[in-house]
Amino acid sequence: MGLISLLISLAAEKKLSSPFWQFNYAFSHYMQFAKHQDFHNKIKGTLYPILLLAVPVTITLIVLHLIQDSVLDLIVSTGLLIICFGCVKTRDTYKCYLKAAYQGENTTCDLHYQQLLTDKNLPDYGFGQTLIWLNYRYYIAVMMYFVVFGAAGAVFYRLLCSLDEQQKIIKQEEPDSPAITPVYGQILYWADWLPVRIASFGFMVVGHFSKALPVWLENIFEFHKKPQCVLIDVAQKSEDIMVDKDDCTAEPCLLVRLAKRNVLLFLATVAMLTLSGILL
């Protein structure tokens, strides 16, 4: 059932353009509801951010538990997975970047790149490096949590990412705001620790294994390095990036193709585990 949901969701996610199928649409309404109810002033300390994360996940678990029909369970789980997958803004930015690059508008390319870093509040990585991290965050990691923990796992991870992104934006705009809490970043670090190493191993398999293996082994038990740095370091070694410095499309395109091959590898692995009876 999990494999069927993954295949349907990946095929449908890019076709469904309605805001209803975008996670940010549901997230914005959820945060507006929490703000309208003034929960932040009613619930003090770290309990408030934990409840913001726990309530939707708990509701998802209860709803799926109450569903007794397997077909309905498949439909609901697939619908939630479609919503959790992808990021329309990131995909549109990538398309606009490529269009501007092919037209020779390097300044516009840089503007799209800087806008993406600002929207996602990321360090100053290269454009291709940023895309490969976001591909992990919005696809591979969500897939992993869905396969292991079901739809509730996908909701948990995607909601955690969105809450962490929002906290970073608040910290940037209002450094002294009492609403800022490091709890999401701490949880997300450990939520990414193992999946990042699994995903980076996949990069080696679909890329340059012998070149990337020393970097992967060096980082496998690294507890102080940021997950995105581990993923990006292995990904860059997994792809031979010998390109013209004046070609601003080469690196992003190479790394995006590497990420797509990794998604296909993950699907093939899930299919084998399903056929062998290890996954249901």
From TrEMBL:
Any one GO biological process: response to antibiotic
GO CC terms in record: plasma membrane
Top-rank lineage group of the source organism: Bacteria
Keyword Cytoplasm part of the UniProt annotation: no
Name of a matching Pfam family: AmpE
UniProt xrefs under InterPro entries: AmpE, Beta-lactamase_Reg
Transmembrane segments: 46-64, 71-88, 138-160, 263-279
Record flagged with keyword rRNA-binding: no
Keyword line: Membrane, Transmembrane, Transmembrane helix
NCBIfam families registered for this protein in UniProt: PRK10987.1
UniProt protein name: Beta-lactamase regulator AmpE
